[in-house]
Design brief:
mainly alpha; two-stranded antiparallel sheet; about 250 residues; 2 strands
């Protein structure tokens, strides 16, 4: 066995990039995309450890660790004698930021996009209302700074999208509801990937800043009902933008 093989690297392995920047992260990403895109269906049995590692030119330990990553996210389950199977979709950790990223690195279905916006519509307007009642001055300043940065950089840039996520994160934090705030990474990932999806063919035709400032103004004024309504409109218009991007898909 070569030194490269012993190290778990072979062929293009050294150039593979994953979320962790390591070989097993890259393998998990590739398999994850294949699963969420439907290339592998629930119930399908993946290659065994020996065959898979030979095919991918990686070490068995690297492949084994990749499978552990996928199992922790509910995408696969491994059992003695039966091998590693793709789990039922109901077991997938759909709100895991990496799993969300894998959906968008393939081609998310219209139904899945609709479900993400339904989640946002359930969570974010209620969060905005609570934030209007509970926010402190420091949180308000962070929201303001995020919107200023978002307006300056625009959503066409990573800096602008990061500022957008900061705004939505801070709204959730300002609810002073710890269980609700645990959704921030998932909501943030949904905001980021849907924003990228909306602009993949062209920049947004609509300026999203007025709706964001309306949410901020209502929260700053302590007006819970207005904050709820403003956030509902913000999410609704974002969904309209996404539907427009869907209509522009090739073959539509």
């Amino acid at each position: 066995m070569s030194k490269a093989k012993e190290a778990g690297v072979g062929g293009d392995g050294e150039r593979e990039e994953g979320f962790s920047g390591r070989i097993h992260g890259s393998i998990a990403r590739s398999l994850g995309i294949a699963i969420v895109s439907g290339k592998y269906q629930p119930g399908d049995v993946l290659n065994n450890e020996i065959d898979a590692s030979e095919q991918l030119h990686v070490s068995r330990s690297a492949y084994r660790e990749a499978i552990r990553i996928l199992a922790a996210k509910g995408l696969v389950e491994s059992r003695p004698k039966t091998g590693t199977r793709v789990s039922a979709r109901t077991r997938w950790s759909l709100l895991d930021p990496e799993v969300l990223a894998w959906f968008f690195e393939s081609e998310p279905s219209e139904a899945f996009l609709q479900e993400l916006y339904e989640l946002r519509m359930i969570v974010e307007p209620a969060a905005a209302a609570l934030a209007a009642e509970r926010r402190d001055d420091a949180q308000l300043e962070r929201m303001r700074a995020a919107l200023v940065a978002m307006q300056h950089h625009t959503l066409a840039t990573e800096a602008g999208r990061a500022a957008d996520r900061d705004f939505h994160d801070t709204v959730l934090e300002a609810t002073s509801n710890a269980p609700l705030f645990t959704l921030s990474s998932s909501i943030g990932a949904a905001v980021r990937w849907t924003t990228i999806f909306k602009q993949r063919d062209r920049e947004l035709a609509r300026d999203p800043m007025p709706e964001h400032w309306k949410v901020f103004d209502a929260i700053a004024a302590g007006r819970a009902d207005q904050a709820r309504q403003a956030m509902e409109k913000l999410v609704s218009l974002a969904l309209d933008d996404t539907r427009g991007a869907i209509e522009r898909r090739p073959g539509r």
